[in-house]
Amino acid sequence: MKWWLREGVGSRWNVALRSFAYPQLRSTGACFRAACVTVAILIVGLFFIRLVLPSQLDDVSPNVFCEEDLMELADVYYVIPKFENVSIDEEWCNEILKREKKLEMHGVYHTYREFEVFRGEEYFNEGIDIFEECFGFRPMKFKPGQLVLGKENNWIRDEMEVDLIWNQIFHKVYHCGDTGFFPNWFIRIF
Ligand SMILES: [Zn+2]
Fold this sequence. Notes:
Elements: H1 12-21, H2 28-52, E1 56-60, H3 68-73, E2 76-79, H4 90-98, E3 102-106, H5 121-135, E4 141-143, H6 156-159, E5 161-162, H7 165-170, E6 173-175, H8 184-189
Parallel strand pairs: 1-2, 1-6, 2-3, 3-4, 4-5
Bound molecules: zinc ion.
């Protein structure tokens, strides 16, 4: 055993080095501590990633109430083209455009788990067309409601980028109507 790994040499660093060099010496406590430290580092890392990457606002629609400060805060809006069977309209779209945010598409009708079952091109394109007609450009990304995209709908990935759970983990995602898995106050903090 190397001198700097002998018992009694140094203190805390020595214990750490010994446990690194000779895993069999590690106690369950040390393993638990190592796991805790790893988790803590991951959480802190994630905190900063979420802080830096553009924040998003889901469920943007004329039919969903959205607090003004959330509209101000978010960098990217995920717009529902035809929520509760009502298409986004020119007047509303112009107001949204004035805010100069990035705009993407969130569901078509955004019924519960809308894209869990097969949705054909015609269904999907209705959303794209409504979006394009109103805003004057096509969305670059699509995020299905409840982040559910059934295997039968994987064809959409060939059409455009699809945001699912990893997007939600790495970005702060607020919700108009505050109906997200985590409430908006929590997203503001973390
Ligand atoms: Zn949604």
